[in-house]
Amino acid sequence: MSIVSLDQPESSAGRRLLEPFKGRALAPPPIWLMRQAGRYLPEYREIRAKAGGFLDLCYTPSLAAEVTLQPIRRFGFDAAILFSDILVVADALGQRVEFVDGEGPKLAPLSSAGELRQLNPGSVAAKFGLIFETVARVRQDLPRETALIGFCGAPWTVATYMVGGGTSVDQAEARSWAYRDPDGFESLIAILAEVSVEYLDGQARAGSDAVQIFDSWAGSLPDDEFERWVIAPTASIVRTLRARHPGLPVIGFPRGAGHNAQRYLAGTELDGFGCDTQMPLGAMRRLAQEARTVVQGNLDPLLLAAGGARMEARARAIVEAMAGARFIFNLGHGIVPATPPENVARLVEIVRAPGTS
Amino acid sequence: MSIVSLDQPESSAGRRLLEPFKGRALAPPPIWLMRQAGRYLPEYREIRAKAGGFLDLCYTPSLAAEVTLQPIRRFGFDAAILFSDILVVADALGQRVEFVDGEGPKLAPLSSAGELRQLNPGSVAAKFGLIFETVARVRQDLPRETALIGFCGAPWTVATYMVGGGTSVDQAEARSWAYRDPDGFESLIAILAEVSVEYLDGQARAGSDAVQIFDSWAGSLPDDEFERWVIAPTASIVRTLRARHPGLPVIGFPRGAGHNAQRYLAGTELDGFGCDTQMPLGAMRRLAQEARTVVQGNLDPLLLAAGGARMEARARAIVEAMAGARFIFNLGHGIVPATPPENVARLVEIVRAPGTS
Predict the structure, then answer these.
(1) pLDDT value of residue B355
(2) pLDDT given at position B201
(3) Could B256 and A256 be called an inter-chain contact, meaning their C-beta atoms sit closer than 8 Å?
(4) What would the DSSP string read from start to end of B45-94?
(5) Whole-model pTM?
């Protein structure tokens, strides 16, 4: 076995997931699934039961690495994605973050610029270090041909949780703060953009082959606010990261961006665009052609959970619509816990079927 | 005073809101606001306190008419919109619907086709009659120049509540049912489309000058599902209604439709398109030009609540972007309870300012 240094770009040769970013359209397309490590897998639930709290699992490199690898062993995806959570950044900054089973995250909400002093960007290293260790362990144990994707939440989306205190229907608290006190809100976004760069940088150094920026709540903003809170901070992260890691593919996933998708791609210069479930296949194809970007997506996770002939037909329709484009098969949002693992196996089989154009 | 029969189309002459539907672009544009009757008004809260439950208020014509008229007296909008709720249809069908203060609606959720037998489309007349009486009362007391807009929820959106039991982040229950058992779900949608036509028809007969179909959760569906659960039932409602009320403007509001907006307009043949907060101004303008439809929208209600110079600038930007188009000024979603009424007064002033092109 040759000695592979992570600083040698050769080490990533042969990883199919990375080919589209080098300009090649693959048939069949590479495949991985958002939230592919998680509760729908019995082997995950076993580890989770041992780990204590959800954040304990994220901060225990041996266990977090193990759950990252589980779906690769079972399904042979073209990429592993670090098992973690976008709110690790809020937690590392010193905000109180709890994960209550069945209820989602609960944070002690921030509501004014004065409260930003509670955050400590200088203190993130210890917790980030545990995540970087997870990345390094995963890379070590991952098959040579499997890419490893790191990630963070986009500043806007992380801010919606930090300000709103949890998941919400309309992100009203963060949106209201941004209207009421744009300068104060800008300070929060700036802190998040700054630590997110360090976070992704560390993940890249530890062995991530690509990174994804999850902007799950990008859809709640009007165009001018979208420009300021989604595009600008994402562009700043991409710029800084690219200077440090030339050639590292950076994928954006601005869920719900709708008509703001083209503007997002033009403004951020991302390498890849994750399409949500709502993006029509025609629009996905046009995006791949016009924006000269790698497009990823977008099977509905609820259809994957339902399975059967309709799921299979839709998966084939997506592959066919994207034939010839630089495309990565994925879901349009994360796997849901009720998904039967056999549906996932069947999906991988379909996407990789010979004859899949 | 002349005797005005509601069956005479002449009776609506002079209502500015209707002009764009006759092909005229007005400057300044007509204005009304979604949820303009409601909790942000102290005079509403007074009536609400007297009425008992929220549904009691909807079903008490004298009180429902009064709260419908309140914002007209205060702000002189170009249209009143019936005070009611999209879940009146679920309630009239016999589903248990409760409105818990501060928590939103709670319904005893339906989860299978077998349970549809609990619904009784034959029994809706009594409750619908109370709504129609409200419409007639409002029309009688409304200034001659003010249009009256009736409404219903779109079948898809009403179904998300009936199946999910309330407001949800992702409408997972309804979407899952639609995947698991499309024929069963189709039966629910068909019932809703059928009674919605009767509901809108009655509102039109009672004196509504236009109607709006609220599809607040249209954004959660992939293109093929959007076609089946949003476009098809809406098209069926529009078709039947148009046959009975030629010339009655029907506005759709498919919130979050994103890239599916053009397809929605092409497939439904609606007269007007309500833009959500997310629709960029450029896209709104293109929609008005290409789709030859009346466009309505789309100030962010949270910006209206915040008020001040940014709200004023954005309101002016919307008016300017839509100059020359057949346009109705509105919000991109409903007014929020925290909105200071003086911000609404200021908005009306700005939109109507001389020099507003």
Answers:
(1) 62
(2) 98
(3) yes
(4) HHHHHHH-SHHHHHT-HHHHHHHHHHHHHHH--SEEE----TTHHHHHTT
(5) 0.94
Amino acid (1-letter code) at residue B104 = G
Selected residue of B181, B223, B299 to mutate for chain A interface (largest A Cβ count, 10 A): B223
Q: What is the mean pLDDT of residues B159-163?
A: 98
**A291 touching chain B per CB within 8 A:** no
Which top CATH class is A16-351?
Answer: alpha beta
Domain B9-352 CATH assignment equals 3.40.190.10: no
What type of residue sits at position A122?
A: G
Question: Min CA distance, B319 vs chain A (Å)?
Answer: 15
Residue A230 burial (10 A CB sphere; 0-12, 13-18, 19+): buried
Is the bond preceding residue A28 a cis peptide, omega within 30 degrees?
yes
CA dist., res. B285 & res. B25, Å (int): 13
Is the CB of residue B291 less than 8 Å away from at least one CB of chain A?
Answer: no
Question: How many C-alpha atoms does B267 have within 13 Å on its Cβ side?
Answer: 19
Give the Cα-Cα-Cα angle A8, A10, A15 (nearest 5 degrees).
125
CA distance B286 to B27: 19
Walk along chain A (357 residues) and give the pLDDT tens digit of each residue.
333 344 444 478 899 999 999 999 999 999 999 999 999 999 999 999 999 899 999 999 999 999 999 999 999 999 999 999 999 999 999 999 999 887 889 999 998 999 999 999 999 999 999 999 999 999 999 999 999 999 999 999 999 999 999 998 899 999 999 999 999 999 999 999 999 999 999 999 999 999 999 999 999 999 999 999 999 999 999 999 999 999 999 999 999 999 999 899 999 989 999 999 999 999 999 999 887 899 999 999 999 999 999 999 999 999 999 999 999 999 999 999 999 999 999 999 999 997 644
Structure ipTM: 0.92
**pLDDT above 90 (res B357):** no
Cβ atoms within 10 Å of B233's Cβ, excluding its own: 24
Confirm or reject contact between B183 and chain A (CB < 8 A): no
Q: Is A227 left (phi over 0), alpha (psi -120 to 50) or beta?
A: alpha
Following DSSP, what letter does each residue of B269-316 receive, concatenated?
A: --SEEEPPTTS-HHHHHHHHHHS--EEEEEE-HHHHHH-HHHHHHHHH
Chain B residues touching A175 at Cβ < 8 A: 300, 302
B266 lies within 8 A of chain A by CB? no
Asked if B302 is an interface residue toward chain A (Cβ–Cβ < 8 A), one would say yes
In angstroms, the separation between the Cα of residue B198 and the nearest Cα of chain A is 31
Is the Cβ of B180 closer than 8 Å to some Cβ of chain A?
A: yes
DSSP-assigned states of every residue in B202-270: HHHHTT-SEEEEEETTGGGS-HHHHIIIIIHHHHHHHHHHHHHSTT--EEEEETT-GGGHHHHHHHH--
Please report residues of A whose CB lies closer than 8 A to that of B167. 169
The answer to whether A176 contacts B305, with C-beta atoms less than 8 Å apart, is yes
Chain B residues with CB-CB distance to A313 below 8 A: none
Which residues does chain B have within 8 Å of residue A170's beta carbon, measured at their own beta carbons? 333
Per the CB < 8 A criterion, the answer to whether A43 and A340 are in contact is no
Query: For residue A224, what is the nearest residue in chain B, using CA coordinates?
Result: B280
Q: Is residue B89 within 8 Å of residue B156, measured between CB atoms?
A: no
Residue A78 pLDDT? 98
Report the distance separating Cα A342 and Cα B31, nearest Å: 54
Single out the catalytic residue among B48, B137, B255, B326.
Answer: B48
Mean pLDDT of B252-276: 95
| B3 pLDDT higher than 70 | no
Picking from B160, B169, B278, B336 by the largest number of A CB atoms within 10 A of its own CB, the best residue to mutate is B278
* Phi, psi of B325, deg, nearest 5: -95, 160
pLDDT at B283 over 90: yes
Kindly list the residues from chain A whose CB atom is less than 8 angstroms away from the CB atom of residue B217: none
